[in-house]
Amino acid sequence: MTATLTQLKGRFYQFLGTYRALVATGGSTSKFTVASLADVESNRYQGWQLRVLTGASAGDLRVLGAGPNAAGDLEPKRAFSSTGPTSTDTAELWGNSIEGGDELTTLFNSILGVARPYVPTKLTIVTGQSIYDLTAYARGPLDVRRVSIRPLDPAGVILHPDRWLTGPIVYRQVNAVTGAVEIMMDLGQTMTANTPATQELWVHGYKTLPAFVTDTSTVAAEYADWLAWEAVLRHANAMNSQTKNDKGAWASVATLAATNTQNYREVFAPYVPLFINPFGASA
After folding, report:
1. Rg of the Cα trace of the chain?
2. Angle (CA) 245 247 65, round 5°
3. Alpha helices, DSSP H only, in the chain?
4. Which of 97, 144, 200, 248 yields a CA-CA distance of 20 to 30 A from 23?
5. What is the pLDDT of residue 279?
């Protein structure tokens, strides 16, 4: 299961307390109508952002110039694309403390340097090879905390616990042809690729999640709430330091976000002692 960046953004505004899910009862290129909003005070959501999720205008992000009015209309400052929303189309109302397009995407990408899960990855064993390229896995030698061999029986059943290796060396090098920085691992021994497999090679460490390019970019669903709380924490701290008003409110949000991010970090990015020395000697 995965979550899109749009879904993460929705969670972000939910955690901020500036969010509302909507189902249209009508609409056009100039309005998104929700009949039940007729009971909400006039222009309650003026200046908020509306993200259309389904229908002909799906993907539109619009700042509201007015709404709701007595008919439950929300009116964007810029017309919706295509034919606009119609009955049963869905949307989300987001607050206005940060722009929900590129600015919020940049915020989410900035936290990927902090929100780095500790995960194991199985490497493909190459017979007689001792050096493996970990560039796609790690951004530096210290990201790799442990390396293990997992013994299996011919049917692929785990026979014993992983055997941790103390000999591997993880190092950074510059590719002489491309000039790119690479993260390499020297096992200090060679292994044999078995068919059927009787052993597996695993590297354990902190992995950088792929950057978000568009709102349809995805991440594992299990990380969605964690990333959203990390974004809330960074945003709340920034707002608390920049604004003269509402400091108490932003401080409260930051405190709540700090508690939640700490809980998620303990689950997904716990501190793991370095089991191998990336610079040469066994740890």
Report:
1. 25
2. 50
3. 5-16, 102-110, 224-242, 247-268
4. 97
5. 73
Q: 127: phi > 0 → left, psi -120 to 50 → alpha, else beta; which? A: beta
In sequence order, the β-bridge partners of residue 74 are: 32
**Selection from 78, 15, 30, 20 nearest residue 53 by Cα:** 20
Q: Bridge partners of 22?
A: 91
Query: Residue 65 has which token pair?
Result: 């110039």
The chain-wide mean pLDDT, for the chain, equals: 94
Structure tokens at 256: 């709540």
**Measuring CA to CA, which residue among 41, 26, 32, 38 is closest to residue 61?**
32
Taking the C-alpha atoms of residue 239 and residue 37, their distance in angstroms, rounded to an integer, is 29
One-letter amino acid identity for 82?
Answer: S
What six digits make up the tokens of 202?
A: 């695993």
Which residues of the chain are modeled with pLDDT < 50?
Answer: 281-283
Partners of residue 199 on adjacent β-strands: 151
Per the document, the length of the chain is 283
pTM for the whole structure: 0.90
- 36 in Cβ contact with 72 (< 8 Å): yes
